[in-house]
Amino acid sequence: MTLADFLSPISLQELGLPTDYYNSQFGHSIQKYIDDFPVWDDETGYPQIAIFGIEEGRAAVNNNGTQKGPNLVRKHLYDLYQGDYTVKIADLGNIKAGATVKDTYVAVKMVMEELMKKDILPILIGGGQDLTYAQYTAYENLEQRVDVAIIDSRFDLDQDNAEDMALNSQTYLNHLILHQPDYLFNLSNIGYQTYLVSKESINMYDKLFFNALRLGSFSGKLDQAEPIIRSADMVSFDIGAIRASEACGNANAGPNGLYGDEACQLARYAGMSDKCSSFGIYEYNPTFDPMGQTGMLIAQMIWCFIDGYYSRKKDAPMYPKSNYIIYRITLEAEDYELVFVKSKKSDRWWMQVPYFGSKSVNERFYLVPCRYEDYQLAVAGEMPDLWWKTHQKLQ
User: Fold this and answer.
1) For residue 298, which of 50, 72, 97, 85 has the smallest C-alpha distance?
2) Which residue, among 327, 329, 321, has the nearest Cα to 341 in the 3D structure?
3) Which residues pair with 50 in a beta bridge?
4) 108-147 residue pLDDT tens
5) How do strand 89-96 and strand 146-151 relate by DSSP bridges?
6) CA nearest 337: which of 354, 349, 318?
7) Are 136 and 297 in contact (CB under 8 A)?
8) Dihedral-angle region of residue 336 (phi above 0 means left; psi in -120 to 50 means alpha; beta otherwise)
9) What's the CA gap between 130 and 210, in Å, rounded?
10) pTM: predicted TM-score of the whole model, two decimal places
11) Could you count the other beta carbons within 10 Å of the beta carbon of residue 114?
């Protein structure tokens, strides 16, 4: 089987798209699957990013119509002008809905697996957010622990029927957390709103040492979300995390949430992360977007992700050591030496959290992204909460 077996081509005529664009517009520079599926090899080179839509909305609870979203986003994306860099991006068309929703999940998994094997970063345009589960299963055969970041106003899980609940856009986290084999290292929720989340769900996050960043806690301080996104292998963005006045194209949109420029900034953080290897945007429903404003915003979020990707500093690994400054702090009340690492290239910070026992074969510590404020906290004699949570997970 090849990628072309799962994907359908883009119809410029059906979308009402022009055949010609200015040289600096994405519509010109993005390689498109229109007639023949793109052929890549070592000689011609591979794209760095591949975009594809997923025409699946059957499990999008109370938001029927999300399957129509990818083409509308594509229409706005092609009109945007690229930044001052040369792009190697392919638009592979859409994955059609399978005979069952599970068939669609399998198709998403196989397409992503094939792309990531070739070191191509997939950008997924859904569809319901249940497709996050399909995005996650694509990492199953990579033989690595996976960090997942979800940008959402809610926790999409069911506490009462954790194991028996059908998979949909409001329960997919149950299936993600309980998935076997278990390769989930960390799960983070960014932008949740307390009145939309049960206290039992918050307690469960705490018990499992997951991260949850409440919308109000980083309002006006968006950089607090950057280390969480930087640590993620995959990022899933529910468009419902954005307030309805900024993104009305969602049947479940609420009066509060992120602003449009904040959503774009979070997308850029994901693009800039050396670790992020897939990015999905879900729950866009054109039925509720008559003016196309939400589709335009999503296109701009993808633009910001791409701009971040081409601004990557490649400073996540500590090599060579001359590019980093090491700070060591010993807390009087603890038995641990805290080691902080600062990149000279980007001024970004990490903490070294040591492995214990048989958890590490080749490494002596786990490098977790953090903020300068975490270093200041340690200097003041306090243990950063992020260090402690990571320490517990590594035992």
Assistant:
1) 72
2) 327
3) 90, 122
4) 999 999 999 999 999 999 999 999 999 999 999 998 899 9
5) unpaired
6) 354
7) no
8) beta
9) 20
10) 0.95
11) 17
- Residue found under tokens 């592979």: 92
CA-CA distance, 30 to 34, in Å (whole number)? 12
Q: Which two tokens stand for residue 146?
A: 């996976």
The position carrying tokens 């018990």 is 207
CA distances from 35 to 26, 107, 127 (A): 18, 21, 24
Whether residue 233 contacts residue 147, with contact meaning beta carbons closer than 8 Å, is answered with yes
Could you read off the pLDDT of 266-275 as tens digits, one per residue? 999 999 999 9
Q: Find tokens 């993104």 and name the residue.
A: 247
User: What is the percent of the chain with per-residue pLDDT over 90, rounded to a whole number?
Assistant: 83
How many angstroms separate the first and last alpha carbons of the chain?
41
CA distance 255 to 262: 16
Extract the tokens encoding 304.
């910001």
Write the secondary structure of the chain as one string of H (helix), E (strand) and C (coil). CCHHHCEECCCHHHHCCCCCCCCCEHHHHCEECCCCCCCCECCCECCCEEEEEEECCCCCCCCCCHHHHHHHHHHHHCCCECCCCCCCEEEEEEEECCCCHHHHHHHHHHHHHHHHHCCCEEEEECCCCCHHHHHHHCCHHHCCCEEEEEECCCCCCCCCCCCCCCCCCCCHHHHHHHCCCCCEEEEEEEEECHHHCCHHHHHHHHHCCCEEEEHHHHCCCHHHHHHHHHCCCEEEEEHHHECCCCCCCCCCCCCCCECHHHHHHHHHHHHHCCCCCEEEEECCCHHHCCCCHHHHHHHHHHHHHHHHHCCCCCCCCCCCHHHEEEEEEECCCCCCEEEEEEECCCCCEEEEEECCHHHCCCCCEEEEEECHHHHHHHHCCCCCHHHHHHHHHHC
